[in-house]
Amino acid sequence: MTAMRLAAVRLLPGIGTALVIAIVGTFAADHLSVFVAGLSGINPADKNAHNLVSGISLAVIVGLLVRNTIGVHERLRPGISWVLKTGLRAGIVLLGFKLALGTTGAITGKALPVIICCIAAALICVTFFNNRLRLPPKLGALIAVGTSVCGITAIVAMGPAIEADENETSYAVACVTIFGLVALFTYPWLAHRYFGMDPMLAGIFLGTSIHDTSQVAGAGIIYQEAFSEPLALQAATVTKLIRNMSMAVLIPLIATRYGPVANHEKRGFSWRQMRDAIPGFVLAFLLAVVLRSIGDAVFLSDASSIGAGKSWGSSSWASFLDTAGWVSKWALAGALAGIGLNTDFAKLKKLGFKPLLVGLVAATVVGGVSFFTLSLLYV
Description:
Layout: H1 3-40, H2 55-69, H3 77-95, H4 101-132, H5 137-162, H6 166-195, H7 199-209, H8 213-227, H9 230-245, H10 247-258, H11 271-277, H12 280-299, H13 312-341, H14 345-348, H15 353-378
Helix pairs in contact: 1-2, 1-3, 1-13, 2-13, 3-12, 3-13, 4-5, 4-7, 4-9, 4-15, 5-6, 5-9, 5-10, 5-15, 6-7, 6-8, 6-15, 7-9, 7-15, 8-9, 8-13, 10-11
């Protein structure tokens, strides 16, 4: 049996399970939305009647129920891990084909001041409360970077840089998971309540206040499904990827403070460290944005009239963009189902009270700073 077939045998059961749960959540949400619409007096024929319940939310919930009732077989774990990493990143990269450079630049210009404020506030507040509660400094550093930058990815990248032990890493990951899941289900509605007049601001709020990349993507999809605003998902994704890129600076910076004294010089601001800290899928996402802009310029006379052109080139380009969007949708849906399948409440119960308190402070501070900065600057 070839290596490729061996990999398929190892990965397909878990990938298939995540996708089945995503499909079940999507179709169940559609039927439940129509039912809720009928109870609310909304015409079931109205397209908005199909968006009252989020398929992504149900997919996560079904995954959580499966994991914490019947459990997940060991044979499924490699595929679920693949969906959470490679599948999620592929979905985000393909999401780049929904954006042109002009839109990306507009989002970045508004998001950058909010991102800087959120990161600074998280690092300062978490360090303060972590010291007051006399928790290990490395644990505080991991919670701070996980909350302020990009969740689990930042924690996993930071752990070896400061030689954190497995318990510290596990605590930090659990904090990000718990409060990120709460934000995933609640922040889309808060975003619409306070920033619904501008879906870009709503997306920036989601992208700056929620921890992990997968959780941001899920919240953006929930917002898009509930309020028919794709710009919110796009803004949330761009904002989150800008946060991810800040790892190139923050990881060497924090490592110089919390890493072993003997290795400070080796762990300093080397160009190689900064380069390696930038996730490859972020660069691939930016490349997709550039390709989208070039494709629109080449194949379309007006980038807003996708599908209207009669030439073979314009119709083929439109078909490619539709396909990329479809694959991105289901890749992200599978990844969000994987979050549920990968969250074990039994392990989370083992957390002590103090790390959870620090995680709660971090989540609250980041969400609050995001809200007030957006309100001050743009509302």
